[in-house]
Amino acid sequence: MDPPPVPPPHVIIFPLAAQGHVNSMLKLAELLAISGLRITFINSEHIHHRLLRHAHIQAHFAAFPDFRFKIISDGFPIDHPRSPDHFMTTFNYVKSITKQLFEELVSAPDRPVTCIIADGILTFTIDFAGDLGVPVIAFRTISASSFWACFCIPRMIESGDLPLKGDEDMDRDVTSVPGMEDILRCRDLPSFCRVADLSDQLLQYVTTQTLQTTAARALILNTFDQLEGPAISQIRTQFPNLYTIGPLHSHLRSRLSSSSPSPSSASNSLWKVDRSCIAWLDKQPPKSVIYVSFGSITTLNRHDFTEFWYGLVNSGRRFLWVVRPDSLAEGSSGAVPEELKEAAAERGCIVGWAPQEEVLHHGAVAAFLTHSGWNSTLESVVAGKPMVCWPFFADQQVNSRLVSHAWKVGLDMKDVCDREVVERMVNEVMGERQEEFAAAAGDLARRARNAASEGGSSWDNLDRLIEDIRSMKPTS
User: Fold this and answer.
1) Are residues 141 and 206 in the same domain?
2) Which range of residues forms the domain containing residue 348?
3) 74: annotated active-site residue
4) Are both 157 and 283 inside the same structural domain?
5) pTM for this one?
6) Per-residue model confidence as pLDDT tens digits over 3-29
């Protein structure tokens, strides 16, 4: 009599409840599901509700019979306006309920747990899972360079690079981040490093979480070796078991195209996508449009919003601009000047949310004015589109410096919001320097696609990750 078949490994995936984190970790979850692993994805009630409404996520993952969602509260009502200001409150609530949640999942007799892939900003999961005998793999959803800068915060403090001494300090070179000595200035450090007081709560939290990542069994990064080689080399000195498997959205597309039959990739959007912008783009000349989006969290005050609008209009270029319903900061007021509305009607298209990957690959789009979130940066890299960067917070300051100084595929506008600067930079990437930036961006795009294709570094690293998971013993 043949022995019963051995069930596939069961992986719990636990992201921070924010769109950028959930988006990339859902793509990782789908990559693992394609490879035959069982997946339980822990989602906040708020995030899951929006994914059901706008991304039809349940129907998409129904194609994988061993995939399921586990829904938890993040401590707020579903309709609560979640802002970065509420991060620590959410974190403390989720931490308080996670140990019991893990105990329930691990003790379930029908699905023994093989490992947990946890967001690297939630390292309390390492202790909780360790008490249950379950290995944890950390996944940081930021760039390798940003992660390494965070890891080096104690070194920056020891050397005197931190704390910052004021605005006059911002253009000083930072020399205490190995491998990035010729890249970073003070203004290019993650936003929570911009403090005069080293006891700042967010600085302390990020530093602690990043250093505690070393207790995980392994580290996953959504990047590829040829994109961030110096930072990746340094990270490997601290994390020998490192998996660089990005760009995840490109990697997922490659795996889906090589499997038959296969579902299409989900959008994972928390906002209602307005596809009318694609029809608008179809009517525009090739390489004539700048796409503008500041992501899912960035808010603009009325001054900044108006300066961007004047800068875009004065550039004389066609533009597609994503303006979320909550894009303006609370308390911002004032009517939009009629001249701006008229100019937008002539050569602009404004939508609440756009299918970004599709937009960036559209032939009419020449460049991307972006907040430099890591997902958006990678999507622009894969599409081969130059960038104008206006980072908002967290890792985005580092990413924008990579774009302009390390990869030379765009311009960095951080800490400036002036219509004349917007106009000048848009015209540089769309006009006088378009060929220069387009050539560099095209070369980077080829490297990204090669890394995420069969035989590429990211493809091989994912295979290695899956084999590592398969070698683990599940809980019993």
Assistant:
1) yes
2) 276-449
3) no
4) no
5) 0.93
6) 667 789 999 999 988 888 999 999 999
